[in-house]
Design brief:
single chain; 2 helices; rod-shaped; 4-stranded antiparallel beta sheet; alpha+beta
Length: 288
């Protein structure tokens, strides 16, 4: 223990008494200091033990934490993962030869944003429905060929064949443009409009064909078959016109303008009109 002297102002010739000062911590203060140091050491040991336990349980390492691994391309998660809030990523993919499952207790919503942070596309998978909000929706095959596309003005289906298997068929509120319409094998094809007209247009030709069954056209109004630039061909062994009115005039009857005989060319089956009171004689340009 160190000691020191204290010099006071004494008169000349007098010696100052020696005064000894004790330096240190004694008594209860010393015991409290040792107790505080002991508690601090216990807390440090407990803290280090908990830290080591957490590191071992969470499997912290230089490569990541637990099943979460940090790779050069991003983050790899081995096993199932649960996200409490939203997740933001530029790409999500599964491991090689493994499936990717996205599951939610309520719904799954996927947003795509532009450079300004505004939502440009949204995919919503909810209760018994899937909704997509976008200006253009496309479906492509593995080769990148477009199979189906929808925008604000039209719907395009680029497959070789579109099958509608419902018993009620398909209902279109507007026009349909397609090169071919046919029914399933051993089934009938029916095209109808309950309250309006059915119009079939083609830039080159319209072919209505039934290899085994009949072709029936029913209407409450008129049936108009018109070819503006060429001819209409009815090719069959038997052509029957039923329920045609028959004129039975009394005596010579009355002649009306615009009434003719309907004649048929024997060589090509072409129809032509002749005078009502003459035989069916055709000129060379009619039956040639």
């Amino acid at each position: 223990m160190d000691s020191g002297r204290a010099d006071n102002n004494w008169a000349d010739g007098q010696t100052s008494p020696d005064v000894i000062y004790k330096v240190g911590i004694y008594g209860w203060r010393k015991r409290c200091l040792y107790l505080f140091i002991l508690l601090l050491m216990v807390l440090i040991i407990i803290n280090m033990s908990l830290t080591i336990w957490i590191l071992r349980v969470m499997d912290f390492s230089l490569d990541g934490m637990g099943k979460l691994r940090i790779v050069p391309d991003g983050i790899r998660v081995e096993g199932d993962s649960e996200f409490i809030n939203g997740i933001y990523a530029s790409k999500i993919q599964s491991r090689h030869n493994s499936a990717l499952y996205i599951e939610s207790a309520r719904n799954v919503t996927i947003h795509a944003r532009d450079g300004g942070g505004d939502v440009t596309n949204r995919l919503f998978i909810g209760d018994k429905k899937v909704e997509s909000y976008c200006n253009l929706f496309e479906v492509k095959n593995n080769d990148g060929e477009k199979l189906f596309s929808v925008d604000n003005s039209k719907t395009v289906i680029n497959t070789d064949e579109l099958r509608i298997a419902g018993e009620g068929g398909s209902i279109f509120s507007g026009s349909v443009q397609t090169p071919k319409v046919r029914a399933e094998a051993a089934s009938s094809l029916r095209v109808e409009s309950p309250t309006r007209d059915v119009k079939v247009h083609a830039p080159q030709g319209v072919e209505i064909k039934s290899t085994l069954g009949d072709i029936t056209v029913n209407t409450r109004g008129k049936v108009n078959i018109q070819s503006k630039d060429n001819a209409i061909h009815l090719d069959s062994k038997n052509i029957a016109l039923k329920n045609v009115k028959v004129s039975t005039p009394v005596g010579t009857g009355t002649q009306y303008p615009g009434v003719y005989q309907l004649c048929v060319c024997d060589n090509n089956g072409r129809l032509f009109l002749a005078a009502p009171n003459a035989n069916c004689y055709a000129t060379a340009d009619v039956c040639s």
